[in-house]
Write a structure and sequence with these properties.
With 283 residues, the chain is an alpha+beta fold. It is 41% helix and 17% strand. It has 3 domains: 126 residues, no CATH class; 75 residues, no CATH class; 63 residues, no CATH class. The strands form 4 sheets. It has a 4-stranded mixed β-sheet. It has a 4-stranded antiparallel β-sheet with strand order 9-10-12-11, covered by helices on one side.
Length: 283
Amino acid sequence: MTKATIQPVENPADLFRQYAGEFNPQPVELWLDTRTGNLGCDYKAGTDNAVTFDHHNRLILSTRIPCLTADAANQLMQEIVELAQRVLDGADTDWDGNNTVGVFTADAEAAWEEITEICARTDNEDLRNQVTRCTADDWFIDGDDDTVAELGITADTTDERLGELADEQVQLIRSGGGEAGYTVVDRDDILGHITRLRDEVRENADEDEPGTGNEEWDTLLRALRLMAKHPMPDSGPFFCSHDRLLVCVDESKFTAEEIAQLEEMDFVVDNEGGFSSSRFANP
């Protein structure tokens, strides 16, 4: 006699899969292999409506369920395992002239019908048993301006800080930002969204800042505005020697991204401290 054997779902979101370019996640099924007795849950592979020969020939029986968390899926299988055993007890195979197909007694058919009814009811039960996905657009629903204000994003927000903000938002989403039992969230999606907002703030700041019409002056002013964030106490801002302009700031407080921005404007960390450039000083 074939025994019903539960194949446990291990990780909270194992039943969730959404392929790139697809609007919806993959459907999820509870399945019973009538040959081995294995009872499991899984998402459907592929994006079409094709079924395998084993499913078509009723060697494997399956029915739709919502995308459950691992705990909820395992609990569901425990609930119906005795019914699954009734199906197996009344299952056999037959050659229909073309393929080996599954055949079932009336009691086995009734047991499988009861399983499908139980599974159908789970779709209307507590969302805390289910897995959902939250995108950046789902999460930041208050609009770009409110998101910028709430997260404190400015033109000076660094990539490092954006990464920290993305991690904070992911943690908020997963710790109860939604009604689902487990929320799938893509950190890169969140990071990309807030990076776009930071870049737009920078673009608007550049547009609002009047230029001199002289590229050298405009570059120097942008560099000085950035370096003014960390002045050296008890020190004048500049020192000039021959063809070198030294800006006296605390270079240790600048991020790698800010240093890279200054290097693009021809200011480098000076051996004596601060940042220096030979671009803007006459010999």
